[in-house]
């Protein structure tokens, strides 16, 4: 190597910045001493002696966990025996500002329900949210994979601050967890945060109100104030304050034996994928949700004697309940005693007044130990019956039926509108307390039914023949539906000349049957599979009888499973309903504004009258393209799905053309509108008609009719629907008569809907509803109908002498041209 280069290379090394190693060699340099890292500190010992954490100043409350309050801090002293045990954590709103989240968020609303466990990890206690959607017995090898592929989220990690003197309990500081904005237990949902522009929790205005511990549960109340730019009320404060109640209850060490669900009997359910099954896949097991009722005397029960349960179902009345309504609410709760007797239990469900402060100072409607009929000061017109259940088995732990104060007004209005023609006592705004009480009693019974595990049974109202509703003896005995769980509120079929009619719903035979099926204890059975033969036998004994049929609410295609309808023939039932409604419309001013000297009630009731009209029409629409659903197992005769016969669909189409799509007569009451609306009257009815026209000309309905041609050549077809619609909607053009304003509006809506069918595609999240419209029969059929209509309108235009009709036909032809030949 060239010496010059070598010297330069060595010089560069000498001039380079010294390394840490070089610095450590030269400890005399002041600069070098400054960069010497300080010696590592030993970690602080955070686990202290018990007495130094839980001092003499502690205020303690013993229960599931012992809760200690020391100054401003709260501690849980957790018995180690409860670590890794399943507990249910339920978050509820206790107090809230008005209009928070809309009409269905109220004091008592549940915001989250989750199964949690408390687990130790090193020097921490973790609270983890646990799921039972995927399970396998711990003894099976696959349980390792189930746990690895279903790892539970940690809600919070707490430092262990002390152990009890005998080390059997672990102490943690829970102050931060319950005073922070922990999303998993918050009352402010993500949607609310966006709507109200919530910036975050204000720590200075948020605090733990109280903590109480009971033998099986813990109840915590938090006051939380959020900074929000657009709060629902008092917007100048830019604040939302809510009070939350956190309930945590230890789930049974010995879980209730679950009962397998069956789609032929309606129950709310919980589901699990069992990876320990012998099936060649994860086995989906679905259990019904029900209360745990066990007979005090199993021997007598097995002999079919009535026996009291070990632990009855008890509902307490909210202390806020108006005094005059309490007896009706109690009666509604205990309506279910008779069905429970069918299942072998007496006094199985009991209504009680809430204890006074003197009787039980700890009573709270939010406490998970108590099921309460909540009475809510809200303008919402509804009632709901939610419940809390053990996700392992479906055991219902607690439920709160929520009654909104204004709900009785809905029932008064519908009582007047739907029964006023045949029921003189309904022709008033001052419905008697006795009648209102009977309505409330049955609404409470309906909502308690939900809380017992029953979903809506929309098939129950189709069990009875239409003409039976005009028979006094029949209605007094059977009511108006085979189940209280249907949306069948009033008998709108009975006519003014009919006598001794029951107009209000009541419990039915399906309620007894379904409750017995789900709640009766089956003797000499050890496993859930041991029960299957008996449960199936009970169903088969009732199969084919419509009063025991379960019809899902989610059905949009089965005319026998509709909301708010009664009777087994929609056309006949709706015709009777419209006759009654016409009578009511004629007398509505007499029963309202003339009695009150105000048009407010008249306007409100007239708007609802239009909704009733639309509801009756909708019941008929479902028959077109309809499919009967009769849930059954392969060991039963017949098919599950059956297309509505062609003759019945044709009857429905003829009914709709005569009643729904004709120009209105009595339904658009000009005298009423002159006193309630200043404009928009012609469009009011157009909107109602177009809703049903669009519903008839929907992709889903046309698709079902195309499918109907596959299963039967003589079924009502998509072409039948489109031709019947064209000839009915455009009958004036075919007959050479002049269409009214209402008819012209409807005809233009028809062309817009045909354009929709020509240009749009199905938008649905349901994979079974999808079919490729552009490659189906839809577009050719619609194109053919539009071409035929254009020919009809071209001829009609030359014949009419009415200028509005002429302009109308010319406009419609132009619209059709733009659809068939878009620019």
Shape: globular
First-to-last CA distance: 84 Å
Sheet/helix structural class: alpha+beta
Largest beta sheet, briefly?
Answer: 12 strands, antiparallel
Q: Which range does the strand content fall in?
A: 15-25%
The DSSP helix count reads: 27
Fraction of helical residues: 25-40%
Overall mean pLDDT score? 89
Find the count of extended strands (DSSP E, 2+ residues): 23
Please give the radius of gyration in angstroms. Answer: 35 Å
Which residues sit in consecutive blocks of at least 5 with pLDDT less than 50?
1-33
Concise description?
The chain has 823 residues and is of the alpha+beta class. The protein is built from 27 helices and 23 strands. It is 37% helix and 17% strand.
Q: What are its keywords?
A:
823 residues, twelve-stranded antiparallel β-sheet, six-stranded mixed β-sheet, 17% strand, globular, disordered N terminus
Polypeptide structure, described:
By secondary structure, this protein is an alpha+beta fold. Among the domains are: 50-250, no CATH class; 697-823, no CATH class. The N and C termini lie far apart (84 Å). 37% of the residues are buried.
Topology of this structure?
Elements (H helix, E strand, L loop, with lengths): L2 H13 L4 H6 L4 H5 L15 H4 L5 E3 L4 E5 L2 E7 L7 E9 L14 E12 L2 E7 L3 E2 L6 H7 L5 E10 L5 E5 L1 H5 L10 H6 L2 E4 L5 E7 L3 E12 L10 E12 L18 E6 L8 E6 L9 H5 L10 E5 L8 H9 L2 H6 L6 E5 L17 E6 L6 E2 L2 E3 L6 E9 L2 H13 L13 H19 L20 H7 L30 H11 L8 H15 L27 H22 L1 H4 L3 H22 L5 E3 L11 E3 L2 H14 L10 H7 L4 H16 L2 H13 L6 H12 L1 H5 L5 H19 L18 H22 L3 H18 L3
Parallel strand pairs: 7-14, 16-17, 16-18, 18-21
Antiparallel strand pairs: 1-2, 2-3, 3-9, 4-5, 4-13, 5-6, 6-8, 8-9, 10-12, 11-12, 12-13, 14-15, 19-21, 20-21, 22-23
Helix pairs in contact: 9-12, 11-16, 11-18, 16-18, 18-20, 18-21, 21-25, 23-26, 25-26, 25-27, 26-27
């Amino acid at each position: 190597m060239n010496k010059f280069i070598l010297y330069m290379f060595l010089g560069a090394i000498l001039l380079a910045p010294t390394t840490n190693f070089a610095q450590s060699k030269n400890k005399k340099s002041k600069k070098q001493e400054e960069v010497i890292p300080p010696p590592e500190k030993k970690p602080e010992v955070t686990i202290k002696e018990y007495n130094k954490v839980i001092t003499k100043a502690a205020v303690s409350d013993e229960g599931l966990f012992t809760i200690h309050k020391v100054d401003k801090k709260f501690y849980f002293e957790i018995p180690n025996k409860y670590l890794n045990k399943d507990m249910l954590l339920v978050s509820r709103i206790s107090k809230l500002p008005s209009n928070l989240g809309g009409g269905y968020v109220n004091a008592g609303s549940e915001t989250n329900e989750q199964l949690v466990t408390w687990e130790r990890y090193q020097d921490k206690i973790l609270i983890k949210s646990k799921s039972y959607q995927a399970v396998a017995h711990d003894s099976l090898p696959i349980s390792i994979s189930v746990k690895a592929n279903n790892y539970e989220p940690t809600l919070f990690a707490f430092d262990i601050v002390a152990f009890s003197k005998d080390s059997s309990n672990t102490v943690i500081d829970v102050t931060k967890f319950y005073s922070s904005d922990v999303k998993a237990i918050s009352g402010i949902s993500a949607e609310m945060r966006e709507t109200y522009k919530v910036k975050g929790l204000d720590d200075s205005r948020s605090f733990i109100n109280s903590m109480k511990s009971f033998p099986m549960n813990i109840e915590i109340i938090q006051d939380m104030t959020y900074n929000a730019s657009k709060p629902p009320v008092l917007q100048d404060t830019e604040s939302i304050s809510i009070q939350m109640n956190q309930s945590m209850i230890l789930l049974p060490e010995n879980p209730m034996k679950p009962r397998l669900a069956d789609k032929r009997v309606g129950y709310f359910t919980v589901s699990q994928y069992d990876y320990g099954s012998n099936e060649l896949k994860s086995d989906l097991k679905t259990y019904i949700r029900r209360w745990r009722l066990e007979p005090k005397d199993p021997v007598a029960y097995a002999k079919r004697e009535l026996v009291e349960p070990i632990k009855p179902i008890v509902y307490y009345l909210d202390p806020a309940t108006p005094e005059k309504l309490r007896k009706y609410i109690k009666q509604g709760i205990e309506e279910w005693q008779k069905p429970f007797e069918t299942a072998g239990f007496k006094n199985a469900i009991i209504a009680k007044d809430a204890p006074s402060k003197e009787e039980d100072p700890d009573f709270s409607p939010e406490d998970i130990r108590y099921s309460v009929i909540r009475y809510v000061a809200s303008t919402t017109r509804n009632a709901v019956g939610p419940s809390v259940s053990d996700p392992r088995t479906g055991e219902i732990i607690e439920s709160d039926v929520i009654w909104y104060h204004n709900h009785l007004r809905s029932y008064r209005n519908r009582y007047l509108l739907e029964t006023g023609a045949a029921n003189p006592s309904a022709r008033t705004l001052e419905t008697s307390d006795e009648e209102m009480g009977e309505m409330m009693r049955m609404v409470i019974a309906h909502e308690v039914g939900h809380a017992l595990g029953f979903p809506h049974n929309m098939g129950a109202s189709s069990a009875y023949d239409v003409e039976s509703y005009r028979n006094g003896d029949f209605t007094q005995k059977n009511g108006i539906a085979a189940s209280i769980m249907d949306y069948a509120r009033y008998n709108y079929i009975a006519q003014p000349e009919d006598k001794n009619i029951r107009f209000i719903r009541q419990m039915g035979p399906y309620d007894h049957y379904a409750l017995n099926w789900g709640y009766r204890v089956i003797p000499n059975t050890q496993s859930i599979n041991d029960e299957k033969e008996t449960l199936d036998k009970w169903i088969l004994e009732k199969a084919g009888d419509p009063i025991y049929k379960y019809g899902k609410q989610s059905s949009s295609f089965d005319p026998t499973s509709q909301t708010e309808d009664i009777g087994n023939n929609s056309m006949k039932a709706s015709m009777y309903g419209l006759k009654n409604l016409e009578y009511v419309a004629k007398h509505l001013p007499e029963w309202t504004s003339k009695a009150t000297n105000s048009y407010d009630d008249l306007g409100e009731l007239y708007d609802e009258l239009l909704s009733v009209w639309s509801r009756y029409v909708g019941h008929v629409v479902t028959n077109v393209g309809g499919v009967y659903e009769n849930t059954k197992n392969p060991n039963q005769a017949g098919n599950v799905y059956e297309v509505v016969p062609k003759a019945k669909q044709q009857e429905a189409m003829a009914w709709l053309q005569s009643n729904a799509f004709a120009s209105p007569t009595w339904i658009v009451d000009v005298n009423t509108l002159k006193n309630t609306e200043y404009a928009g009257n012609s469009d009011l009815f157009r909107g109602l008609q177009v809703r049903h026209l669009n519903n008839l000309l929907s992709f889903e309905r046309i698709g079902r009719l195309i499918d109907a041609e596959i299963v039967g050549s003589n079924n009502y077809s998509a072409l039948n629907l489109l031709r019947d619609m064209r000839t009915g909607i455009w009958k004036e053009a075919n007959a050479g008569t002049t269409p009214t304003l209402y008819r012209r509006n409807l005809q233009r809506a028809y062309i817009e809907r045909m354009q929709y069918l020509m240009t749009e595609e199905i938008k649905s999240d349901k994979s079974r509803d999808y079919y490729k419209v552009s490659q189906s029969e839809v577009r050719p059929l619609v194109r053919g109908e539009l071409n035929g209509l254009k020919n009809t309108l071209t001829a009609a235009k030359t014949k009419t002498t009415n200028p509005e009709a002429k302009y109308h036909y010319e406009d419609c032809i132009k619209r059709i041209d733009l659809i068939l030949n878009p620019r």
